[in-house]
Amino acid sequence: MPLNGFMAPEAPAALLRWLISEENTHVTGQVVFIDGGTDAIFRGASNLRKN
After folding, report:
1. Domains in the chain: how many in total?
2. In a domain? residue 1
3. What is the DSSP string of 4-50?
4. pLDDT value of position 46
5. Which residue range(s) make up the domain with 30?
6. What pLDDT is stored for residue 40 in this prediction?
7. How far apart are CA 47 and CA 4, in angstroms?
8. What's phi and psi for 22, nearest 5 deg?
């Protein structure tokens, strides 16, 4: 992982806990990457939308 090494299991657990909590009022139907930026680095600019 490019950002601070491997994550502890608590990191995705905290995200999941927040996603299912009442505090999350607007996030639905999204793909959320919690990979330290790996996906963005591998895909690079080739995956950007072209308007």
Report:
1. 1
2. no
3. TSSPPTHHHHHHHHHHTSTT--S--S-----STTHHHHHHGGGGS--
4. 67
5. 10-44
6. 80
7. 24
8. -70, -20
CA nearest to 15, candidates 37, 1, 33:
33
What global pTM score does this model have?
0.62
What are the structure tokens assigned to 4, written together? 């601070």
Domain membership flag for residue 28: yes
Quick check: is 2 in a domain? Answer: no
Mean pLDDT per 10-residue section of the chain, whose length is 51 residues: 78 94 93 84 70 54
Does any domain span residue 34?
A: yes
